[in-house]
Automatic annotation (TrEMBL):
Binding site for S-adenosyl-L-methionine: R53, G78, D99, L147
Function, in words: O-methyltransferase that catalyzes the 2 O-methylation steps in the ubiquinone biosynthetic pathway.
Pfam family of the protein (one): Methyltransf_23
Protein name per Swiss-Prot or TrEMBL: Ubiquinone biosynthesis O-methyltransferase
UniProt key word S-adenosyl-L-methionine: yes
InterPro entries found in the cross-reference section: SAM-dependent_MTases_sf, UbiG_MeTrfase
Gene for this chain: ubiG
Amino acid sequence: MQVNDTSRHAMPGADAVSDSVAPDEIARFSALADRWWDPSGPMRPLHAMNGLRLDWTRRHLPAPLGAGGRRARVLDVGCGAGLASEGLARMGYDVLGLDASEAAIAAARRHLDAHPLPPDGGMLAYRAGSAEALLAEGARFDAITALEVIEHVTDPAAFLRLLAGMVAPGGRIVVSTLNRTWRSLATAKIGAEYVLRLLPAGTHEWRKFITPAELGTFAGQAGLRVSDTAGMVPGIGGWRESRDLSVNYIACLAAP
Ligand SMILES: C[S@@+](CC[C@H](N)C(=O)[O-])C[C@H]1O[C@@H](n2cnc3c(N)ncnc32)[C@H](O)[C@@H]1O
């Protein structure tokens, strides 16, 4: 289905509509936007894993400052209220945070206003809208991050093709997501949403989780190569990197 999303972008308060955007998913995130930055609020798991995700991402992205002092440009797609976008900008990247939720982007902007970046660091801009619109404008980035996003889009294979169209030759795309296993059903879905109540019920649809093999297939179809993968597991003292990919994992996709 082709939906013209440019008119929706212009409407304050309207979430983006496009082929990759599932409106029910975006509405769920918009409803949580005001509490996004509360580390013990509904986004608690994202806060808890953010340090690990950023550290792993930093090791797999080009350096923030390239030859001649040019800053590497990073698109953080599905940035929500900017947990990772801000971290990447503080590392020195020139970051564009993009999200289909107007409310999440408004929360991101409010947080950035209250916590400005150091003047000698990276740059950070936010935009509410779809990846399709950005691609249509011919935008290109040295690297793209899509952290905990691909399990919320309508068609993950098409979403990766979109991202592949926006990454520069030789660039990197870092994706973190949830594996579709019985273990993730028990822990990330039933445990997190209904037993421990770490997340609002209905945050995830288990059938939309993506196995590493599926991610590899979708990446290949998009002309990308999986260059590294790691599991992310919660533990005492915080999340840590692991070889266990059975629930949360992160992957680096390399563009030719
Ligand atoms: C689980 S949140 C992750 C937010 C952020 N990446 C993080 O990890 O802190 C998923 C986000 O993806 C956004 N999203 C889902 N589908 C999208 C799409 N097709 N284009 C842009 N944003 C999308 C949602 O609005 C939501 O903010």
